[in-house]
Amino acid sequence: MDEVRRPGRPRDAATDRAILRAARDVLLRDGYAGLSMEKVAAAAGVGKPTLYRRWSSRVALVGDVVWHSFHAAVPGIGRPGPQAGDGATQQLTTWFRAYASSAGDPRHAAMILALTAAAAESPHDAESLYRHHTRPQYEAIVDCLRSGVESGEFRADADLEAVADALIGSVLYQLLTRTGDAAPQRAEHLLDVLLAGLRPVTRDQPGRAPRD
Amino acid sequence: MDEVRRPGRPRDAATDRAILRAARDVLLRDGYAGLSMEKVAAAAGVGKPTLYRRWSSRVALVGDVVWHSFHAAVPGIGRPGPQAGDGATQQLTTWFRAYASSAGDPRHAAMILALTAAAAESPHDAESLYRHHTRPQYEAIVDCLRSGVESGEFRADADLEAVADALIGSVLYQLLTRTGDAAPQRAEHLLDVLLAGLRPVTRDQPGRAPRD
DNA sequence: CATTAACGTAACGATACGGCTCGTAACTAA
DNA sequence: TTAGTTACGAGCCGTATCGTTACGTTAATG
């Protein structure tokens, strides 16, 4: 997979890093609305064409910033269970604790919010952002839940995607409403309720509430 | 509470309605990013100062549009349980079904996404938007859950705010990731898991998973 | 009629978008 | 060495939006 050397002056890898770093700083300080290409270019000490040579738009740049920040600081974010030997319950718990805790870090919170803002304000960008930055993680969670069903840890009739939505969505909602201070405890408590609800039914306890 | 008539030409109530309607249409067609004050003014057949006389900023206008759209079309959105005689389980079910179903309507989806975009892109606006447009509903849900705890329908040790986060957040995440097609079923299934997890523990079934 | 304020029109300065052109630097191929 | 190609920083361009202002008109008060 060696890079094919093309004629002409090669791009400076240090410039890539400087831009990403500057964009991350601006995102932290001013939020997604406050991130302009000109501000990023100035902060990175580069010209605007240098930005547009690499990223076709503001959304694309922000997407890459989020991507790099996540993979630099939260290595296992894409894989819920680092230890394959653990049960699904333990894997899910480990991952969700890490995820909720990372959302408590302002650096990651800003990244998640930026992705959210980009997706929410423009339906067109939302699809591509989801495909590239969120779906792999989402599918890994569902896979983890599915393995828990196969091992008998979880109810077979549970809607696993609904559970994944609730896990990710609850953190997202907390970030949006700035209730994030109590996040770590709340993550633990949400796991309590969801894991209890996922437990296979016994004879004494029917699977559904009587009302319907 | 009669309006005190002040001297001078009074504001035209029809103009208010025309602006709100135009802003709603633009929001539906072009999303939050595509909503500009000039576009709204043009669509409403009104000058820009007329907009700024009523709303101090774009965010304020969008906030009011969401407010009016919700209260016009989803009357009970602020009060989970229309029938006070119902149990908390039934109240919660009724409300969440209505909420998830309304999110399936593109008109409401656009409103929720607009609020989300505004909150996500600017931390400053997020706080005031939350206070005025989301918190009452959120607190009503928590109150409903709390009444369920008091009546013995739900576990006393459950984190009710975590449950509320999960309910609202799951819908939000589905909207953001355009997985909203399966929303009605998923809402039902999430209720299944959460209500099962909220059920008070019995002697046969310990409250927590063994692993910790 | 005098006062007051909302109205539409038409600007304003500031800022950001995405693109473009300069002159220069860096690298490859002949 | 030389020509060709591409990246680079600096900066300008046209369009667009922001929030604001000035101005003349219209509609209500007293």
From TrEMBL, chains A, B:
What is the top-level taxon of the source organism?
Answer: Bacteria
The residues that make up the annotated DNA-binding region are 36-55
Q: Which PANTHER family match?
A: HTH-TYPE TRANSCRIPTIONAL REGULATOR RUTR (PTHR30055), TETR-FAMILY TRANSCRIPTIONAL REGULATOR (PTHR30055:SF148)
Which one Pfam family would you cite for this protein? TetR_C_11
Entry keyword annotation includes DNA-binding: yes
Asked whether the keyword Transcription regulation is assigned, the reply is: yes
Q: What is this protein called?
A: TetR/AcrR family transcriptional regulator
Specify the species: Streptomyces marokkonensis
Q: Which keywords has UniProt assigned to this entry?
A: DNA-binding, Transcription, Transcription regulation
Query: Where is each HTH tetR-type domain found?
Result: 13-73
